[in-house]
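Bug #2210: C-alpha cell dump truncated for tRNA-dihydrouridine(20/20a) synthase?
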Amino acid sequence: MMDWTDRHCRYFHRLMSARTLLYTEMVTAPALVRGGARHLLAFDPAEHPVAVQLGGSDPQELAEATRICCDEGYDEVNLNVGCPSDRVQSGTFGAVLMKTPGLVADCVAAMRAASSVEVTVKCRIGVDDQDPREVLPAFLDTVASAGVTRFVVHARKAWLQGLSPKENRDIPPLDYGLVHEMKRAFPGLTICLNGGVLSLDEAQRLLAGGLDGVMIGRAAYHDPAAILLGADEAIFGVPGRKTREEVVDAMKPYIAQHLASGGRLHNVTRHMLGLYAGQPGARAWRRVLSEGATRPGAGLDLLDEALAALPCAA
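Reproduced locally. Full output below:
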C-alpha cells in the first residue's frame, strides 16, 4: 500500500471504523536509522490502534528502527516479508526474506528485545519455485521460535522475477486452504489472512472458518464505506455506524488544519475519491474532487460542491 495508506488516508479510514487495526505504508529501517526520516512516522493520535510496518534485513538496524517507532507511540511493529518489488529485493528485504527464515528469526528477535509493543510478521506463502506446503510451515515454525505469535499471511506466492508488484497481487493463485491448514497446524499462533478479500461478508466467513483475523487492503481503499462503515458492528459487535455525509463533515476540521499548516487539499481528498463507490453520483463526486483539489487555493468549499453534485443533495 505504498503511497496509499499515508496518515491522511488512515485518519479518513479511522472515522469510519473505531476498532479496525490500521497499518502504515512500509517504512524502511535504513531510512529511519541512517536517513533520519522520522517524519515518515508522524500520525494523528486519533488513528489508534495503528501498526507501523518496517522493511529491512539487518537485525540491529531493525532493532533501532523499532525503538524509534515505539517512541513515536505505535501500537504494533510489523516486519514486511511480503513485498516483491525490485527496489525492496535490492535492499534484501520484503518477500525475498522468505528464502532465509533464520535471518527473519534473528531480525524479529532483535526487534522484540527493543520493543515495548507486539512485533508481528506479514509474509507470503512462498516465493518463486518454492513449494508453499513445505516452505510456509517451516517459515512459521522458525520465526515463531523467536517469539512472534501473530502472522499476517498473504495467501499468494510472490514471483521475484518476471512479475511486477502489481501482477504479484493478482496473477499467482490464492490458496486460502493452505492458510487454514496453518491455523490448524499451529493453533497457538494468531493467523490472519490477506489477499483478495473484497467484502465484509467474505471476511466474516473466513473468521467463522477458524482464522484469527483478516487484512483488507485494496478493497478498503477503493470502496472504503463498504468495508469500514459496517466493520465495527459486523466484526466487533459495536454499534454506531456513520453515514458517508457524516464522515465528510468529520473530515472538515482535519482538512482545515492541514490547509492552515500549508498543505494542499489534494493531499487528503485523493484518499476520499472512493467514498461513494457504487452509489448514485459516485462519478460526479470523483470528478469534482479530482479536477478541483489540485487547483491553487482549493479549500473546504470544494467538498460542499462535491456533495452538492450527488443526486441525494438535489
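Output looks complete on our side. The chain has two domains: 7-236, 244-313. Marking as cannot-reproduce; reopen if the truncation happens again.
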